[in-house]
Amino acid sequence: MSGPNIGPVLGPVSLVPRRRVLVLIAALALAAAAGVALGALDPVLAALMAALLVALLFNLPHAPAVALPEAAPTAHAQAPLTRGDAQAAAVVAALPEPALLLSATGEIITANERVALAIGPTRVGDPLSFVVRVPEVLDAVRAAAEDGLPRRVEFAERIPLDRWLEAHVVPLRLEAQAGIRAGGRRAADAPDAVLLTFRDLTQQRRVEQMRADFVANASHELRTPLASLSGFIETLQGPARNDAPARERFLAIMAAQARRMSRLIDDLLSLSRIELNAHVRPQTKVDLGGILAHVCDTLSPLARDRGVTLEQVKDAAPLEVLGDRDELIRLFENLVENALKYGAPGKRIEVRLSRENGTAVVSIRDFGPGIPPEHLPRLTERFYRVDVAASRDQGGTGLGLAIVKHIVARHRGRLGIDSVLGEGATFSVRLDALPGPEKKNDEAVA
């Protein structure tokens, strides 16, 4: 053998398992030693074979590291649904209505910002029942996750305000494969997520209710003036056709009844507009002192006609609140006008504006006959009158204090009514006042 033959020998040897090569080398070494000992092998040839065996031993390839095959994932190691999927979260966030994306078991995956305003705060991973406590909605979500059919549920809430909502439940397939159902069976059509959206029906239901109230109230209150108009028209067309004095008297009565119907319709429309926006609190700064001064100036001719002194008492510092100027003017006009109409025998009406512990207090007090205590709880009801005949003689519609109550409620204020028979009545309105100038600043200006 010669050196150039080593390379070809190493090639096939590298393909033989290392243990078998070692056994072969040991066998050749023993054979060479036995041949030298018996004289059958030339010592020079034996030395050459020994060198060849040593070279072969040092050039043996090392056993490569064997990569163990990875264990196949078990059913328990399968990845769950992606809860923070960016695409799903972006779609839910872009929806114009409150929306939640739920897993098939009812946990919250993601929700848009409108949910916190309409339903309440949410947290990823919480069950839906932590946010929505309506059994019909929870049952609809559970059923949609089982059968894959969309559903719609209408429900009402009474706290903190009367609201009507509509829930739309839509099952979704977000994964390429359906999930494993309980029991190990795979449902090919089973959804792996549920989209829950809410639609606010409050304004629609209020409009419907206001329409019904308007028809009922208008039909009741308009019946009397319409009957008067119809009767006088028939009289003028018949027996009083040529009676000039009777015609003038009847026309005056008809004009008064027509004005009464006009006031009634105006008050009903005003009340409807106020109720429509009852859930929206005004956010405009208004000066109560300026509003009360405007109201007193407007009603001063009526006060002079009735011989009543209208006094206005207010603090020197400006007093501002968040409110709707037109509605507040209507509020205080109704209260002052009621005092002029029903408290006129006292000959004096006091309009006072003050600040009490961060609250603006407006009180309208008359010194008339007062209101019997049994009537006080019902004064703000629609068309409720202490004295029906006196109210109609004064041109009242029975809606003035109902309008006052709804305006105060929209401004998140409080209405108080106090009366002592023979000493008059006091109507007070309390509204949250905006912070006024500090005393130090006032002193510095002074």
Description:
There is one protein chain. The chain is α+β, with helices and mostly antiparallel strands and 446 residues long. The protein has 14 helices and twelve strands. The strands form three sheets. Strands 2-1-5-4-3 form a five-stranded antiparallel sheet, with helices on both faces. Strands 7-9-10-12-11 form a five-stranded mixed sheet. The chain has a two-stranded antiparallel sheet with strand order 6-8. A hairpin with a 5-residue loop joins strand 3 and strand 4. The chain is elongated, with a radius of gyration of 47 Å. The model is unreliable at 1-16, 65-81, 177-186 and 439-446 (pLDDT under 50).
Keywords:
disordered C terminus, 5-stranded mixed sheet, 18% strand, 5-stranded antiparallel sheet, disordered N terminus, elongated, single chain, 14 helices, 446 residues, 12 strands, alpha+beta, 45% helix
Briefly say what this structure is.
By secondary structure, the chain is an alpha+beta fold.
